Amino acid sequence: MSAETEQTLPPQTQDRQPGRETEMNPKPDFEPRYPGSGRMRGKVALITGGDSGIGRAIAVLFAREGADIAIVYLDENQDARETKRLVESEGSACIIIPGDIGDAAFARRAVEQTLAAFGRIDTLINNAAEQHPQHEIADITPDQLERTFRTNIFGLFFTTQAALPHLGRGSTIINTTSVTAYRGSPDLLDYSATKGAIVAFTRSLAKKLADQGIRVNGVAPGPIWTPLIPSTFPAEKVAKFGADTPLKRPGQPNEVASCFLFLACEDSSYMTGSVLHPNGGDPTES
């Protein structure tokens, strides 16, 4: 980072959402930082938004720890194929399932395809999301509001509803919320609202499923370098992304994926209804 300009990244944008990891400069760091120890051996993880960014880092880390992976994504086919290759290079099996989780019928099909391939689901990662900044609340159209809630909240509900009958004692659900749920974001009103709803959903579902032995937790990342960033913000904002955190930089996906692994495995066996905060030191109320 340049001390004079607070620049953390090269200025860049992408002209459509979802963004493509193949077009980012520099590429996000997704590689696990340590050898696997079998913490997910014999498990199956279904990851929405698993083609790139945080989802890719989770998929590769879980694979290194022994899990087979089902990746759900919208239409980023090149990124998804690369993540599949990376998972398989760790010695695990992987299927990729394109489609819109905001469609309840597709969410059911994604779960059915996972079961057909692997026979079980042990961990559900609800990670897919979209965001569309607007300076004024009046500029948030009904269509944008519907899209944001349909992906971020409806899709999470639909996927959870479809997967839940196939989860057993010891299974885990982990939902990706955001630092914006805690500190707010004046230009991401609808997105922040969905992420706050995810916190409430996580805590409520955790209480609902505790008697069944299914743990439900969340992760609230701060500014993480993923395809969502250059596909959302103008180049000048991307260039200073993460500079306003105490650590003065954006986080990398592999700095977040370890939170998901902790919550998915027995290391966190006495945690449910909790949220972890990999956010570069941004103060929040947890």
Descriptive labels:
alpha/beta; Rossmann fold
Plain-language structure description:
It comes from Microvirga brassicacearum. Residues 1-38 are annotated as: Disordered. Residues 17-32 have a biased composition (Basic and acidic residues). This is SDR family oxidoreductase. The protein is of the alpha/beta class and 286 residues long. It has helices spanning 53-64, 77-89, 104-118, 142-163, 180-183, 189-209, 235-238, 254-264; strands spanning 44-48, 68-73, 94-98, 123-126, 172-176, 215-219, 275-276. A seven-stranded parallel β-sheet has the order 3-2-1-4-5-6-7, with helices on both faces. α1 runs parallel beside α2 (77-89), α3 packs parallel to α4 and α4 (142-163) packs parallel to α6 (189-209). It is globular.
Instruction: Tell me the count of domains.
Output: 1
Topology pattern, helix = H, strand = E: EHEHEHEHEHHEHHE
Distance between the termini: 29 Å
What is the count of DSSP helices, taking H or I runs of 4+ residues?
8
| Average pLDDT level | 94
CATH architecture: 3-Layer(aba) Sandwich
Can you count the beta strands? 7
CATH topology: Rossmann fold
What is the oligomer described by this structure?
Answer: single chain
| Main sheet strand line-up | 3-2-1-4-5-6-7
Q: Cα-atom Rg, whole angstroms? A: 18 Å
Note the main sheet.
7 strands, parallel
Give me the secondary-structure category.
alpha/beta
Low-pLDDT parts are: none
CATH superfamily: NAD(P)-binding Rossmann-like Domain
Shape summary = globular
How helix-rich are the residues, as a percent range?
25-40%
Q: Report the β-strand fraction as a percent range.
A: 5-15%
Family: Belongs to the short-chain dehydrogenases/reductases (SDR) family.
Region (Disordered): 1-38
Protein name: SDR family oxidoreductase
Biased composition (Polar residues): 1-16
